[in-house]
Here is the input.
Amino acid sequence: MANDTLEQNRHREIPRQTTRGTAVLDAIEGTLADFLTAQIASLDAVDPALGGLARTTRDLVLAGGKRLRPTFAYWGWRGVSTDPLEPVLPALAALELMHTFALVHDDVMDDSATRRGRPTAHRIFAGQHGARFGASAAILVGDLCLVWADQLLARAPLPTATLFGVRARYDRMRVEAVTGQYLDVLGETSAADWSVDRALLVARLKTASYTVQRPLQFGLALAGPCSDISNSLDEAYERYGALVGEAFQLRDDLLGVFGDPSVTGKPAGDDLLTGKPTALLLLARQLATPAQLSLLETADLARIAQVIADTGAVARVESMIQERVAAAIAALAAAPLAAEARAALIELTVRATQRPA
Here is the structure.
């Protein structure tokens, strides 16, 4: 029943997605691959074990993924710029290294077994020298990705004033991602004190900020110093990014319970096992009858998932996603950006919020 509900709501009144920007993604992948090849060679020359660390890190970075962050940044930039792509490629690619840092550390904190259908970093290293080594090495992989992201960003051949503006966005993005992750971890220790509003705050900091909102504004900053048009567009990106980012996390909450692991690349039910106070689970508790509430406290993941659907929480979350998507598209309608960028961002709204993984 739960998956049927998801399917019935997933594409209701939402524009259909088309393929766009493949050449940009190829260019970003090439930039990452070239940069990582050079880093591997440099560390190999110091010690073969360090070359092995760098190769594992490269494999994690290039293991697929939606590449949403550099894509949002690209269209944030292209919304006002007609300049050649090549100078901004290092900056766009740096966001994917930052994303890998966040994923690797998140997987350690959640003790996740798989990511993108493959073993997580700490599981890979645990297979070599045990669990403690695995966790330690994975933390270092995440740290290395964050340093490499800084190095790659600094390679963008842009005017100093532009790089300062880009860096300000980048730093804010990192602070919000880390503080949002802290609240996410804190929520697992005090779920009874959590509210839907606080769960949405976590979504805005941990997900909306570094997935949509700040990448868009990061891209806008790549176009150069502020003007009246870019200031107005910055405000539109702020609103659009918050709405799409929240909807992205709400979809993630649904997929975390009802998603197909063969498609998502992650086990279903991890959030339920840890008691993470997602908006979905908190709504289910609010809507549940006393009998349903007692069932939500059992250890039977399949039964919990069914009860969540039966409470109406899934339908409520789907409605929240639809509302945010509609408001985000409305925010773009009056924004002073290029028509191609507006169309691409609407497509990205679909990809981010109606995805199966």
User: Anything to note?
Assistant: The first helix runs from residue 2 to 10. Residues 2-353 form a domain with the Farnesyl Diphosphate Synthase fold (CATH 1.10.600.10). Residues 73 and 239 are 15 Å apart (CA to CA). The beta strands are 114-115, 118-119.
